[in-house]
Give the backbone structure.
Amino acid sequence: MTLQQLRFLAAVFESDFNITAAAAKLNATQPAVSRQIQLLEQELGFTLFSRNGSAFSRVTPAGARVIEYARRVLRETQNISNVAVELNDPARGELRLAATHSEARYLLPSITETFRARFPKVQLSLHEGGLDEIAEIAREARVDLVVASGSHDSFDGFVHLPVRRLEPRLVVPRTHTLASTLHPTLAQIAAFPVAAHVLTSVDGTFLREVFSRAGADLHLVLQSRDADLVKTYVRLGLGVGLVADLALEPARDEDLVAIDVATLFGSQTIWAGLAKQGPLRAHVYEFMALLAPSLTREQIDGTRT
């Protein structure tokens, strides 16, 4: 088998079994793609795809296993090429990030802007998604650095380095009854509908439990991973808002009052995830220096041994 055959195999799978689309992606002809898949199947001794006439309809169980390994081989082949690029020209290279919504929206823009200004030749990519989604791409080694908040139980094989604390804030319009209350109680907050900025799918349940333990009846009128949406509905009078301090932008949110409620709800940690084993791309360290300035390269490497 050849790398070309593995590339053709992966391209067909990633193109939803459309040979024409796979050929276009690879700058090859449709007959060439079909022929290489046939030769690979002959060498392996089993079919990789079920067929409907001359078209591929789905991957076979054996084919799914081969594709998993083929994509891994192709990723590692690309990693070898990336190492050569970085060693021959340290200013170049690639850095692949994955982040949960709040971190991608509020924390990373200024950091990526600074990074790109310092390393304009580095190809930077960011995948934003939920924890389960980015955990999956992390397991497939499709990302160099994860930046997230919430549980890291799904990130086996990664070390988790603290970046900063996330503190909860109650946000209300400046004319609201609670605007001048320095230390609101749960009962005072529960007197109003609550729009909550939730970082994970279990945050709503957590909030209900906190209010329930205090004997307060929570009316959770909105749950969203988009803190801007929460602030929008607070401005519309839908209710009071609970957001992470990271999501507050003084220039845009001067019409709102933000009240520290960490003593009521606790805080969370934004963490960076790095693979425990194997080499890191050179530019991971530069990005980490912007993300968590207190961590040295030696400290980062020490956590991975």
The mean pLDDT is 87. The chain is about 45% helix and 25% strand. The two ends are 36 Å apart (CA to CA). Residues 196 and 223 are 5 Å apart (CA to CA).
